[in-house]
Amino acid sequence: MSDFPQSGGGGYNQRGGAQTAGQSRLTQFTMGNGTKGAWQQLLASADVECNQWVLSVQDLINAPGPFLVDVGIGAGPTVVLPDLMFGGNFGSAATTMAELVVPLKLPEGESISIRGQRQAGGTANMRAAVSIMGATFQDIPAPQVAVAYGVSGGGGVEVDSGGTANTKGAWVQIVAATTRPHRWLKLCVAGDGNAGGDQDFLCDVGLGAAPVAPLIIADQYVRTNFNTWEGPMHLIASGGPFYRCDIPEGSEIRARSQCTSATANQRQLEMSVVCI
Questions:
Q1: Beta bridge partners of 30
Q2: What is the pLDDT of residues 131-159, one digit of tens each?
Q3: Are 84 and 69 in contact (CB under 8 A)?
């Protein structure tokens, strides 16, 4: 019978998110209009050091995106998770909730805060919380630096699925050269002004000018929802989780997609990546 490691203490959980007016709800924060809004503290002090945690976000906006969110620690705060991009949920505000496991080390005793911005259209409110977990698998050192690539003008890089439905379009460069080596990658998506009902996408992410298998991400499912401008419905979860990978410093990252529609104003996504 196999022996399993007993170290790590991975069962601990501490949740940060104010309970407003006696109700168990997430902490509300205001997204700035075209620039990052004020920081909102989610947790005053982390009880333990952790190397993974959960970010929870609820959409209150009922308006198109894309949106960018930063998570920071300590006084200031210092940004540790930058420019996490996602789409809005036009037509179904306050009903969409997403949770993302983030494999990023957070120190004991530090406060954790969040801020964000809306690309255009005024300020808007969202809710968020963090759940930190004990330092699971302590023998595996957690990476401590997150970098966003492909973010520009409050959104991402446009990726066009092309004029043939259900067929992968051309590879599009997200970044020409990564600034450091990475071990995790998350694809971030928004709807790029899509109109005309629900559309389904399959997205790939790879390395180099002409990526070949094995890809970092193959056929990640994304859906833009019911007649929204910006979808997708599942906010930060819409581009999938953080995928374990090995990306050398100086790597080119590209993405492509396919869509159920070949119509020009329905088949595009905005994409960026966050790497740890």
A1: 125
A2: 988 765 454 566 678 999 999 988 899 99
A3: yes
| Burial bucket for residue 185 (CB in 10 Å: 0-12, 13-18, 19+) | buried
Chain centroid, CA 259 distance in Å: 21
Kindly state the DSSP code that residue 190 receives in the 8-state scheme.
E
Instruction: Give the CA angle between residues 183, 128, 187 to the nearest 5°.
Output: 30
Paired tokens of 35: 């620039």
Residues whose CB falls within 8 Å of the CB of residue 46, separated by 6 or more in sequence, listed in order: 14, 106, 107, 108, 109, 110, 111, 112, 132
Structure tokens at 10: 């991975």
Q: What is the DSSP letter of 118?
A: E
Length of the chain (residues): 276
CB proximity list for 180: less than 8 A, separation 6 or greater: 145, 147, 249
Q: What is the pTM of this model?
A: 0.88
Position 57, amino acid: V
